[in-house]
Amino acid sequence: MALFRFGPKHCLEIQKITSTVFLRSLSDSSTDLKKILAEKIPKHLEVVKKFRKEHGSAVVGEVTVDMMYGGMRGIKGLLWEPSVLDPEEGIRFRGKSIPECQKILPKAKDGSEPLPEGLFWLLITGDVPNNKQVETISKEWASRSKLPEHVVKTLKNFPKSLHPMTQFSAAITILNSESEFVKAYNKGVHKSKYWEYVYEDIMNLIAKLPSVAAIIYRNTYKDGNTVSVDSSKDWAWNFSRMLGYEDPQFTELLRLYLSIHADHEGGNVSAHTTHLVGSALSDAYLSFAAGMNGLAGPLHGLANQEVLIWLEKVQKEIGDSPSDEKVAEFVRNTLKSGQVVPGYGHAVLRKTDPRYICQREFALKHLPDDKLFKLVSQVFKVVPPILQETGKVKNPWPNVDAHSGVLLQYYGMKEMNYYTVLFGVSRALGVLSSLVWSRGLGFPIERPKSLSTEHLMRCIRA
């Protein structure tokens, strides 16, 4: 088998595709997002058709037996437009790194972190939005945020013992009563128009997610009271107030958090599940709920909780301000016991996660003297050399989860079981953007071929 038979000619063509379809037109200042997509999708569809016609038989990867037994890790078999994960650069949103996004995306008048609305615009269009375009999204989401009464009633009736992610997934599922796509599909809408109704669904769903998430938080952990949406404020500002947090720094943290967790390529469980279920023409609500059920799994969405639990063990056993030698001893003992150091290593990345770095910069700015942050910094200093010593770890550097929980703890959100819900609200921006493009490009139902071990052995012997 050949690996990447794309030559320089093909790479140049891919660059031309990117330039033609996704680079921002500086003269385009329209605030009508749906109209912009209506212009972009047909153009990109023609580019894809031409590309497939000319290069449809080109080989872009190989599949090994280890890949098949190892969770399909590294198999190239999925189109995902919003983001690409580079082993050295980290995540790039439509070609833009996290530092670039922090610099170029619009911010709130009183803030310095990018607004999630701006990242959403970038993910779904490929264009860097201006302030007016972002303000339009903020107002549109505010206008779409009201929850149906049956959803509110259901949320209020959930027992406090029910896990927040279970509540989140269930609420999203029953929101499908509002699906514009279902209504249109049942009336026989032409498949070329599918994306338009999926767009309406994803805009309604993203708008409602903070309300759903906030009700879950207030019912489960607080007084059960709810706060209405202020249409003059941005998405994250409203979310923080609905949660019950009024500290402007927490609002800034939420803006950053919701932006950097928004997308991480298409192969992770929550993204791929949303895509897979959507390929069956399940509506956006059912597709995203399925993705959230995947995110709820301990190998996907619980990593920052595991980091906090490990840090608490460090504090309990060797104190709040241990020496580097004590931390190193604790780390080595963790590894000797057959456990991993949570928050370190990544399946793809081969450097420190840029999402970790931007959170560290936030902490250095706002909470430099916090004891838990100082411990995180110390672990950042001590752990990588020890992991490198083992010779078994491809990436000894911290990922996003090594830092996010510490920031939430500092601002008073101590309820670790809720953290995955925050992750889910953020991840909607990327996976639902991709869902619009999947329907716009007419992707078919996803159905990879599976083999039994016996059949695979026969294939190899042949």
Automatic annotation (TrEMBL):
SUPFAM superfamilies: Citrate synthase (SSF48256). GO terms for biological process: carbohydrate metabolic process; citrate metabolic process; tricarboxylic acid cycle. GO terms for molecular function: citrate synthase activity. It is found in: Mitochondrion matrix. Pathway: Carbohydrate metabolism; tricarboxylic acid cycle; isocitrate from oxaloacetate: step 1/2. The active site is at 300, 346, 401. PANTHER family: CITRATE SYNTHASE, CITRATE SYNTHASE, MITOCHONDRIAL. Homodimer. Belongs to the citrate synthase family. This is Citrate synthase. It comes from Apis mellifera (Honeybee). The lineage of its organism: Eukaryota, Metazoa, Ecdysozoa, Arthropoda, Hexapoda. The gene is 410059.
